């Protein structure tokens, strides 16, 4: 009996010893293999100059002269920020969401790896990762997102190398500036502007948690596209902040109840451009600046952080854009209603209908105070519309006047205002909302400083995203009676005085070439006042007086005189019709020409981009030219 036990004991001891030997051998072999791998791989790891001399791709930015952003160009919206400028609540939200032991581990969080492994095993699948912030920096700067063991090994080794070369704050700063957060926004400073329209330093805990939840899946947790999923992710980050004691219970509850206001939410404020997120609309001027900079620097302009400071003044630009749009819409309200922009098939269930509207309304861009809406119900006396957010809006009485002909049964079925019709709501301050449509007419606005030619406000059309044609610089039209000032100034230069009598009587001009036509112009109102002073003829814009003045000084002289104001000779044919504005010009030329009168006879060249700043500035010196010292030959 005893001998049997002894043999079993010897056999058991031998099995244990063999097993231990095998395990030790495997461990040694594994260690040797890892050592060989490290010896081969570590020297091949990329140099960290990209991190130690961090130069992110910063887009071209265009500002007004008083520092308001009007345009940003480049594939990546990025605004680098120093770690000292990142609010504590933002740093805490990032750590809570991504790596709460960041300041404790050396690049690899083994406790996090173990926790993730246990979670994945117990959940029956690979549901949780263990990438640290340092590993994410390594991946974002040097590696692909391929899910392979080789890439993961490089990521781990790079994380150790980074931790040995940079401080924790430097690593966190790189992460904060480099990570992609959706909406073409790279880095949390840019994301704060894109989503909330405010600098990172001004965000609260609720906003910080929303931003911190984005790196995991920027598209899935985008609060603009997927608000419900984004809310779930935000609540998770807030709970983690509470568990880590970054937020106490009171702060946690307050953050959960905070309503987030996003940058591109529909708004009644006509000073906010919901489609761009910018506080003023100056897309045409921004595009002019972009073209100028790209001509100087090529494609490098979009990545090297060039900032262009234009001559625009934000307050004046707001006023210009508002005046242009108000004028266009006042005209549009007097036009025949052309019918809905489109139709959206709406389910009968109100909740489902609102979801469908929310999913589709973004296809119809808002333009400041002219906003898209979908008809929920329509009758000759009341139309109820939804804008995809907020309570439905009821329109009655005068609000329906622009489209009242399309609310009865006699309207064509394909254009009738009915449930699902996409319309426009005009929301102006201190005025009731109006049911209307997108305008077809265009307009332009230009304001320059007569002293130096600096453009203070410029709008090339109702909305740049609809029509990128700049009507200030590209649209050539006949200026009509507004050109008469140049004819009269030519007369003064030739010695005709403001008190010279000129006949305001019908005039007949026979055809001066074979096959031509006789010309019998008239005054606008068909009335004639007989002999009158030159200054009265100008004040009353009398066509007959203007023509007789041009006859006296000759059309050829009038043409040469007009070129001194900046009008190309080819655009000012030397005929008597010039007196009535039969020339070709654009608003920019007209503004520049009229500035001569306000500038004591000096002509200035209009400009919008006096300096391009790129680690310094390059200014363009402009000199006014006085042409009245050099009148055209008689």
Number of strands: 19
Share of helix, binned: 25-40%
Largest sheet: 6 strands, antiparallel
Task: Count helical runs.
Answer: 19
Radius of gyration: 36 Å
- What is the molecular shape? elongated
Write down the overall mean pLDDT.
83
Low-confidence stretches: 123-128, 265-277, 614-634
**First-last Cα distance:** 141 Å
Structural class: alpha+beta
Percent of residues in beta strands: 5-15%
Please describe what this structure looks like:
It is built from 19 helices and 19 strands. The chain has 634 residues and is an alpha+beta fold. Strands 6, 7, 8, 9, 10 and 11 form a 6-stranded antiparallel beta sheet that branches. Helix 15 (484-493) packs across helix 18 (555-563). It starts with a helix and ends in an 8-residue tail after the last strand. Residues 123-128, 265-277 and 614-634 have low confidence and may be disordered.
List keywords for this structure.
5-stranded mixed sheet, 6-stranded antiparallel sheet, 19 strands, about 10% strand, disordered C terminus, about 625 residues, 19 helices, alpha+beta
Task: Summarize the SSE layout with pairings.
Elements: H1 2-41, H2 49-52, E1 60-63, E2 69-73, E3 77-78, H3 88-98, H4 110-123, H5 133-142, H6 149-165, H7 168-178, E4 185-186, H8 188-196, H9 205-212, H10 227-243, H11 249-257, H12 283-297, E5 307-309, H13 314-332, E6 342-343, H14 350-360, E7 370-378, E8 382-386, E9 393-396, E10 421-426, E11 434-436, E12 445-448, E13 455-459, H15 484-493, E14 501-504, E15 530-533, H16 534-539, H17 543-553, H18 555-563, H19 587-598, E16 602-603, E17 611-613, E18 617-619, E19 625-626
Helix pairs in contact: 3-9, 3-10, 5-6, 5-7, 9-10, 10-11, 15-17, 15-18
